[in-house]
Amino acid sequence: MMKFEFTLNDCSHHLEIKKLKPILSVAVDGRPHSLEDKERDKSLKVMEVDGRIIQFYSKRVGNKVFLHLHGRNWVINLLDPRDAALGVVDGADEIKAPMPGIVVGINKEPGETVKVGETILTIESMKMETNLVSPRDGTLSEIIKAVGETFEKDQVLACLEVAENA
Amino acid sequence: MGKRNPLFTKVLISNRGEIACRVIETLKKLGIVSIAVFHKSEASSRFVKLADEAYELDSDTPVSAYLDVNQIISVARKCGAEAIHPGYGFLSENSNFAKKVIEAGLVFVGPDPEIIELMGDKIRSREFARENGIPVAPSVTFNGNFDEFIAEASSIGFPLLIKASAGGGGKGMSIVEGPESLRDCARKAMAEAERYFADKSIYAELYVQRPRHIEVQVIGDGSGGAVHLFERECSIQRRFQKIVEEAPAAYLEENVREELCNSAIQLAKAANYKNAGTVEFILTQGGQFYFLEMNTRLQVEHPVTEMVTGVDLVELQLEVAAGYSLRICQEDIKLSGHAIECRICAEVPEKDFIPATGKVYHLERPYGDFVRFENGLDQGQAVTLNFDSMLAKLVVHGPDRSSATQRMKDALSGTVFLGVETNINYLKKVCSHPAFLNEILHTGFIEEHKAYLAEDDFEDVEKIDALLASALEFREFKTLAFGAPEPYATMGSWRN
């Protein structure tokens, strides 16, 4: 049956539906657990896992789930198979904003060669500066935002020329 | 004592968020009309709703609204406010604002502009403290004569911190362990200072290892009366910002506490200080303390002091601002139990505390006689990067430090913010750390215990439950697990 991949604190976990009847069995990282969805209409939700009743709050935003369960807050991501295909990070051609903010400094110009790890631009979010570095060796083709311009999370801020012999 | 209320009929708060809410609370208690000013992006904020009257400030950016001196004063005059409470941050320590408020015929809930100016100047305020017999960390500035500098620096003792006078960001900074390396280090610092700042001035000061940040709450009435409300410990900091504060200090020899508090009072009296204020000190592990600076306003962490003394600091601020002399004397102020505050911030501690944004879809706060939860935002509101990342302050009181710590952990467990990442779990780890429990605190706590604080502290079974609960949020999973749920049966798209 279909597998789902989740990430929690950057660790990936696999869920797989094993059996539907008589009671739902879901393997979490290979080990099966019985799961029953008890109450979803109230803000405090209830499920039963391996015979244990568990109350929790949850809210899904996109592919992210915010949970409050066992007295702690959890943020869990569902890895969308289509995102996984696009989600190249190391060695990518683009420098994306890790968070919303404003460009406060540009260290390189289009046409310049850059080494992996070299700072291309500096951004600021909430009084905090972060350097955005080149994901690989290459030539800078474009800087999309100028100093003082704002951007949203995941917006592309600069591009590298596509490597010829890649 | 007598009845002093109403001190004012109307007070405007030139601030936002939780501190505006906090001030409004006391104004309501005293029967004073509260007036909020706000940027249009905050029209539905909690403080705007709580205030009796609220006026929009016209400005380009949200932050600049709360810095617009002329507009704020003009609103205050138009609506008939008699006083302006500045909260903390923004214009609270801006002497020009204080001056203009007074010139407009209004009362500034704060000290005289000259005192704000004096205390706002790092060099002048230290000089003032030194002149008034308050210990200041020994330091020496290079004045052109290298041998003289070396001799004076050596007499301070070691380790020494050498810094570029124009410096910042650690450039031109070094720690000198003993006299043998002083000359070399000083030369190197000068060369670096020249290279980075085109200015070879350097200075040396005593380097305090594992310093603690201890501050004393004072309040003065500007006519000689001044009392202290004991100390707070704010040694747990990240990015030079406090995140866990407590009152009284985790541990303190009784004579050191007395000296600290007396020094603070001495400074307040020397300045003929009027308002609530905080005198910040660095405390060495050996019990020696040095004046750092004085904050001439209400502090973010003031609730811990209120909880252990039972005093309403905002009420006292308003009383002295209205011209009354202090109605409490030092003997009236008694310490009772222990209080801890945690600053709940929208941030990702695992990723170097980068700020997080989102929307608070669900908010649950802990309740209890010994809990204060001071939030600036309500459920349904967006967390943006326009302002500081603090979402709320959680403050608890207990008969002693260990019970207060336990109550804090319970209260953190009962605090729910869904829709934005927070440091709640992280704060719980801080409060559970053996060094925190054993009162081994210093300002490098977060850095020193980085590895421990980065570890996952949940049980496997909790993790499994969390993953399963998450799966239940996804229709793709539920359709497979339980068959197509009724309303969604026909939709079936992956994302919506």
Short descriptors:
heterodimer; A: 166 residues; mainly beta; eight-stranded antiparallel barrel; 1 helix; 56% strand; B: 496 residues; alpha+beta; five-stranded parallel β-sheet; 19 helices; globular
What is the end-to-end distance of chain A?
Answer: 36 Å
Beta-strand percent range of chain A: over 45%
Quaternary structure of the protein: heterodimer
The secondary structure category of chain B is alpha+beta
Shape of chain A: elongated
Q: What structural category do the secondary elements of chain A indicate?
A: mainly beta
How many β strands of chain A by DSSP?
16
N→C terminal distance of chain B: 65 Å
In helices, the fraction of residues of chain A equals: under 10%
- Strand arrangement within the widest β-sheet of chain B reads 14-13-10-11-12-15-22-20
Beta strand count of chain B: 23
Q: Round the mean pLDDT of chain B to the nearest integer and report it.
A: 93
CA-based gyration radius of chain B? 25 Å
Biggest sheet, spatial arrangement of strands of chain A: 1-2-3-4-5-6-7-8
